[in-house]
Amino acid sequence: MPKPVLLITRKLPDAIEARAARDYEVRLNPDDAPWFRDGAEIAKRAQGADGILCAAGDPMNAATIAALPASVKCIATFSVGYDHLDVAAAKARGITCTNTPEVLSFATAETAMTLMLMAARRAGEGERMVRAGKWEGWAPTQLMGVTLEGKKLGILGMGRIGRELAAMARGFRMEIHYRDINPLPAEAAQGAIYHDNDDSFLSTIDVISMHVPGGDATRKWLNAERLAKMKPGHLVVNSGRGGSVDDAALVASLTSGHTRAAGLDVYDGEPKVFPGYFVLENVALLPHLGSATIEVRDAMGHRALENLDAVLIHKTPAPHAIG
Ligand code: DGY
């Protein structure tokens, strides 16, 4: 039996490429060349392929899906988020789509925690000062931030990542609040306080950490009106999807000091970053590091391949099908 043909759009960890090469006739992107940004190019390279292993940010939109050859039966995204993948268009063409849930929840929560600490303790500002040779020594009033201890953390979107963050934040003695469509069962909530409306959620919390999927439903969710409902001096953290923050509104709030500080890992239209952030000291900017650990990127690759194996080799349902 010939091996199924698999197009992999991005450079992946070595162990994942080796496993893929063992089980598939692989088309790799060893240099991570930017053709993955071009849907027409992805479709061209997918001619004759049975599956595609794509990644967060690849333009797997309706036009790309429409241009794929009929041979493609499975698209596995190397990500938990799939706002870049038009699952409905793929489904209409009989293509199974899958993602990589669970394995990256802790790592992404770690990134949110990192950003929260960076924002609270002015870590980015301090690092820039030291690197620039501008640090003149310890001083009693230098770069004073705020503690997280005793603060009310508001988690927007209490899925797996939100719940991992809640567990970490309890270690910092924060009080956990959350906003979601439905409350969690008590065992999963672990005492976290549910808000069934934005007003009570926003007016209660000291820190918001955003964990909502991208897409129209959450587009610019954190806008000027919602920021205004938060207490002066609050912190904003986003490690979900960039589009859920109205950048101009957040920059205005950071500039006025109504938002004390923010930490961002994701950006609307990334890798572009809203230019207003660059001139502000009170925002920490990370380059979408959410799941970027050696352990997790391997686990994500194995998960993506498990899904492709199910559909293309074993002819069984994908364990992590979406849509
Ligand atoms: C995801 O998995 O959706 C992340 O954002 C990519 O690291």
| Biggest sheet statistics | 7 strands, parallel
Separation of termini?
31 Å
The helix-and-strand class reads alpha/beta
Order of helices and strands: EHEHEHEHEHHEHEHEHEHEHEEHE
Short synopsis of the structure:
The chain has twelve helices and 13 strands.
Account of the protein in words:
This protein is 36% helix and 16% strand. The protein is built from 12 helices and 13 strands. β4 (74-78), α4 (87-92) and β5 (96-98) form a beta-alpha-beta unit. α1 (14-23) packs parallel to α12 and α5 (105-121) packs across α7. The protein starts with a strand and ends with a strand. 42% of the residues are buried. The mean pLDDT is 98. The structure holds (2R)-2,3-dihydroxypropanoic acid. Residues 56, 79-81, 104, 290-291 line the site of (2R)-2,3-dihydroxypropanoic acid (DGY). The site of (2R)-2,3-dihydroxypropanoic acid has 7 residues, from loops.
